[in-house]
Amino acid sequence: MGKSDMLTVGIVGAGAMGRGIAQVAATGGCRVLLHDARSEATDEALTFIGGMLDRAAEKDRMTAEAAGKAKSLLNKAEGIDAFADCDVVIEAVSEDMGLKSKVFAALEEATREECILASNTSSLSITRLAAACDHPERVAGFHFFNPVPLMPLVEVIAGIRTEPSVIDRLVELGKAMGRTPVRVADAPGFLVNQVGRGYTLEATNLVAEGVAEFADVDRIMRDAAGFRMGPFELLDLTALDVTHPASIEIYEQSYHEPRFRPAMLMGQRMQAGLLGRKTKQGHYAYVDGKQQRPEEPEAPGFDGGTFWVEPGEDAAALREIVCGSGAELDEGERPGTDSILLIAPLGLDASTHAARAGLDPERTVAVDPLFGFEGRRTVMQTIVTRPEVMRTAHAMLAQDGTPVTPIKDSPGFVAQRIIAMISSIGASVAQNAIATPEDIDRAVKLGLNYPSGPLEFADRLGTGRIVQILEGMSACTGDPRYRAGPWLRRRAALGVSAATVEPAPRG
Predict the structure, then answer these.
(1) pTM of the model
(2) What residue ranges define each of the domains in the chain, with the CATH number in brackets?
(3) Catalytic residue numbers?
(4) Which residues does 321 contact at the CB level (< 8 Å), separation at least 6?
């Protein structure tokens, strides 16, 4: 299926996803038949697509000739019977198993046996959809991302009984449409939506535990971890009535895998109608479509102080910050009685770390070392840190102009918790052979716009450090969602890349 082939692609559903798929199929040289149960919706979609193609030509993103050719390939299908000669039909109706099953039953009646039947579902089981069909071998997932013309990824999902040749043909079709296809085995949430749970669920749990506010978490993940959008900005964009039900679906399909456990706070906010941008109120308020982000409090003024830095991997960088601020550095093996104690734990909360190290918890402040100390610094108190100690540490760390976010005690701070969960879920995807390590990282960067893929994060930050964070959080909380799986443990133990593929046992 290359660009030179004149394939006929049917699309059922003329909503945002269906019209986007129709647009990229037409620009990829396919004859497109678009159908919606509501005839006017099809007309509106075709008009919309034509306008988008004209605009692309006006902005020199494509030639006027190419836009005209693409528009000539778009056709309205009055009924599913019009798909009789299609090579591929893509279902893009609402995320409802009952509705999709009815559509697939009708498509089986209307199409040739050689026609591929593909679903754009983001979370429903392809195997289950196919099981209701007479020919499950021709059913596959073809999951695009919204907005389709701008998002370069498509997941090509094989159900248990899908013929390999069907996946090969869809991969070629995806390339013809200008997308980057990744091959994925059928699994709850497939690839991208599994990994995405680590970002939004863990962030929501952090706030529910009182560790930090929505804006604090977003600032840390943007400025320290390098994400384009914080998790709560993202949730407001996608809307909670989309994200939370998908989380429930993934959790139920995975037989209650703890890593995918839905966040209670997310469900409560959805029930309260705080859905995000589309309701003008989510984790942030929106006025005329513009996010009303709260002002970040100014850092307190620094009046000097004495700081002792616990020996360790990140001690030199912290000592340099202390000296650069004009503070006095306590260079004793053990801290003086008037010194503020700086620690940099991985996976542990400040209270537990201070207790284990025999440090005075009232004078102890933890600083997150995971991404270094350049973009934004996160400082964490023990449950008994004196307020004046926390204030002085905050002031000293902000003295050079670097923003500082103070949070309450938590195993793994903010960035550690979220990144460790992303890497853990990505490693689980690899361990379960849902996708190759290369495709896992590629898909997450293209589909979610993360600065690194989950396995790349582990390599960049240290697979051993990620395992240490997970083990620390698991020990502190007793929650199985933080367990480090065998994929990460083995690669950390051997000191090899998190993307290392095990060779076949029979050469």
Answers:
(1) 0.95
(2) 8-185 (3.40.50.720), 192-292 (1.10.1040.50), 306-402 (3.40.50.720), 417-494 (1.10.1040.50)
(3) 122, 143, 155, 193
(4) 373, 396, 397, 400
